[in-house]
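Q: How would the structure tokens look for this protein?
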Amino acid sequence: MRIAITQPTYLPWLGYFDLIDQVDTFVVLDTVQFERQSWQHRNRIKTSTGLQWLTVPVVFRDLLGQKILEVEIRDIEFRRKHLRGIEVNYARAPFFEEYFPLRASGIWTTVSSISYPRLHAGFAFQ
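A: Here is the predicted structure in token form.
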């Protein structure tokens, strides 16, 4: 049996999904310390003018020990801006129409809630 354990990532890269495909059990480890300015709550997208950072505004309460699953989103309005940025820059990409609604749906209240619930789409979980 092969298992992979990784922390949640905002807008996971292709290798993240390849890793999921390669193992029998995939564990999202969100009970560890949240790191500011990390891939846990930000990522980059390609635009016509270069790379653009998309950073989720979070409530950072504890310098030592705040767990990823405890980190709340500070301002839900970021969602509209991020989704629009993705739509404008990727609308012509293959499979955009199929997968964009999965990214746009769901609960956006914590770093964990925006990172891994959408992973369930397209995978058979036991």
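The first strand starts at residue 3 and ends at 6.

DSSP finds four helices and six strands in the chain.

Upvote if useful.
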